């Protein structure tokens, strides 16, 4: 759909007028987002101050990237927002931030809003693309449990790309700040902003989704009204005096009503690659907690990618942070910027045999001749059966025994996506590896790999969502608390694996 046709579809809704966002409408738009985000239980809330900063940024083009839909009374009913990052070219990013007021959902407005956002992002990329520019990636962020917008995203080709834990801990327990040999933890120093910027960007280059920020983008971050330099801290190498770590802390006061307490938020925690695994991140975070408490705050919070391979989840859990909400990212990438505008899910490469072989092995067995089909290889149903057997074995350690139904609980499969990568034949030794990706109140998202141990290759991938079922009612039910805690611990452990999960994009937690 062209951008013009998408705009016409918006204009076709009776009683609504559409116009680019103007500065004097920011309070009304802030109120609109507050209502939407409260209704959706979104842990991340917009503020009027944040909208004003967006408007005032030289990078922003609200007259191009936004449309506000208002009814006859002037009330904001919907916002279409496709924020195009015009200063980063290694990956051309578009943030899809539109929404529809809760009492106007179900009319097709959300579909029309998303289609305009996608069309605008594609049109902008085509009009401004130059040789050497990276791919166009358009992303939408949502709470895991916001089924309406996530279903809409998936119907329009935005596959789930990442899950995040929003984590928090109370500040009632004092944590001593340990000394790190050869390193000093000191106050934030704005005079070293350029050096801090370079260190932070370098530290995050091996993290998902990172692109280096321009000086202007960095300056906006460290002068934002939410940023708290008095709460933020640096780590300096005692020998060279170089900045080797930083914790950038903020006060997102618009979130406090939802959380119920004033809290400090660690927006970024970075340690130079040359100084990792020395306890610097823990020292920076502990000092941040101390400063939060000294300022009268009652809690600390942060967000973490559940597939983060740096061990961050273990660090945060060890310091008392616990998940309080789950969010996710859906994304599409342009398959051919010069083509007809098709989009395709962002996919990671398959992990190698060597990357998987070090994980715990389940369902180890040779391929019996009885499992061969007329093509002379393992029949398709047995790939799935053996992968399921491996998944079941892996869940025993989480408090889900194979006779769980006898105690009134069970796991039911809800969705599968299967990929056959290499033949398994009679006599080949095979085994399963399991990676847990995320959990909702009643479901788990997992990947199961079958390895051909005889030929040292990956043979099969099964992506699955399975549900907890109460066997008395035979309906889905929340996970028991002990099982949920064990699943979360496993998710955190699997997140430290040094490879990206290769998701199909065809399923996601609800």
UniProtKB/TrEMBL annotation:
<keyword id="KW-0687">Ribonucleoprotein</keyword>
<feature type="domain" description="N-acetyltransferase">
    <location>
        <begin position="16"/>
        <end position="180"/>
    </location>
</feature>
<dbReference type="InterPro" id="IPR000182">
    <property type="entry name" value="GNAT_dom"/>
</dbReference>
<dbReference type="InterPro" id="IPR016181">
    <property type="entry name" value="Acyl_CoA_acyltransferase"/>
</dbReference>
<dbReference type="GO" id="GO:0005840">
    <property type="term" value="C:ribosome"/>
</dbReference>
<dbReference type="Pfam" id="PF13279">
    <property type="entry name" value="4HBT_2"/>
</dbReference>
<keyword id="KW-0689">Ribosomal protein</keyword>
<feature type="domain" description="N-acetyltransferase">
    <location>
        <begin position="183"/>
        <end position="339"/>
    </location>
</feature>
<dbReference type="Pfam" id="PF00583">
    <property type="entry name" value="Acetyltransf_1"/>
</dbReference>
<dbReference type="InterPro" id="IPR029069">
    <property type="entry name" value="HotDog_dom_sf"/>
</dbReference>
<protein>
    <submittedName>
        <fullName>Ribosomal protein S18 acetylase RimI-like enzyme/acyl-CoA thioesterase FadM</fullName>
    </submittedName>
</protein>
<dbReference type="GO" id="GO:0016747">
    <property type="term" value="F:acyltransferase activity, transferring groups other than amino-acyl groups"/>
</dbReference>
């Amino acid at each position: 759909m062209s951008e013009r046709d998408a705009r016409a579809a918006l204009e076709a809704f009776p009683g609504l007028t559409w116009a680019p966002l103007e500065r004097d409408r920011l309070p009304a738009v802030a109120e609109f987002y507050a209502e939407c985000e409260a209704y959706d239980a979104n842990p991340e809330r917009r503020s009027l101050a944040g909208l004003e900063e967006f408007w005032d940024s030289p990078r922003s083009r609200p007259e191009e990237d936004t449309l506000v839909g208002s009814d006859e009374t002037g009330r904001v009913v919907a916002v279409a927002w496709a924020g195009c990052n015009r200063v980063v070219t290694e990956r051309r990013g578009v943030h899809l931030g539109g929404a529809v007021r809760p009492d106007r959902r179900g009319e097709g407005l959300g579909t029309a809003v998303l289609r305009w956002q996608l069309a605008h992002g594609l049109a902008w990329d085509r009009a401004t693309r130059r040789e050497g520019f990276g791919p166009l990636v358009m992303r939408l962020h949502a709470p895991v449990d916001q089924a309406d917008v996530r279903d809409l995203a998936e119907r329009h080709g935005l596959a789930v790309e990442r899950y995040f834990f929003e984590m928090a801990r109370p500040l009632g327990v004092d944590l001593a700040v340990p000394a790190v040999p050869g390193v000093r933890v000191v106050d934030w120093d704005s005079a070293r902003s350029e050096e801090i910027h370079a260190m932070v960007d370098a530290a995050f280059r091996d993290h998902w989704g990172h692109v280096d920020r321009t000086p202007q983008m960095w300056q906006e971050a460290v002068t934002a009204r939410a940023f708290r330099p008095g709460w933020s801290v640096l780590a300096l190498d005692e020998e060279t005096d170089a900045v080797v770590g930083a914790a950038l802390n903020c006060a997102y006061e618009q979130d406090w009503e939802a959380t119920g307490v004033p809290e400090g938020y660690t927006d970024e925690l970075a340690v130079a690659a040359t100084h990792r695994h020395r306890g610097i991140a823990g020292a920076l975070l502990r000092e941040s907690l101390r400063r939060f408490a000294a300022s009268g705050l009652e809690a600390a919070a942060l967000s973490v990618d559940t597939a983060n391979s740096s061990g961050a989840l273990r660090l945060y859990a060890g310091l008392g942070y616990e998940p309080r909400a789950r969010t996710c990212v859906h994304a599409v990438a342009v398959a051919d910027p010069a083509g007809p505008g098709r989009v395709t899910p962002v996919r990671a490469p398959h992990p190698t045999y060597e990357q998987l072989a070090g994980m715990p092995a389940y369902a180890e067995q040779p391929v019996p001749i009885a499992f061969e089909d007329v093509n002379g290889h393992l029949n398709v149903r047995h790939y799935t059966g053996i992968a399921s057997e491996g998944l079941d074995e892996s869940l025993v350690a989480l408090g889900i025994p194979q006779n769980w139904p006898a105690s009134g609980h069970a796991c039911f499969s809800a969705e599968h996506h299967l990929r056959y990568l290499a033949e398994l034949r009679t006599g080949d030794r095979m085994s399963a590896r399991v990676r847990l990706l995320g959990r909702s109140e009643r479901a788990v998202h997992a990947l199961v790999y079958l390895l051909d141990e005889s030929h040292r290759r990956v043979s099969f991938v099964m992506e699955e969502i399975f549900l907890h079922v109460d066997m008395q009612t035979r309906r889905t039910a929340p996970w028991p608390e002990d099982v949920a805690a064990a699943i979360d611990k496993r998710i955190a452990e699997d997140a430290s694996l040094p490879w990206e999960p290769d998701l199909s994009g065809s399923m996601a937690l609800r």
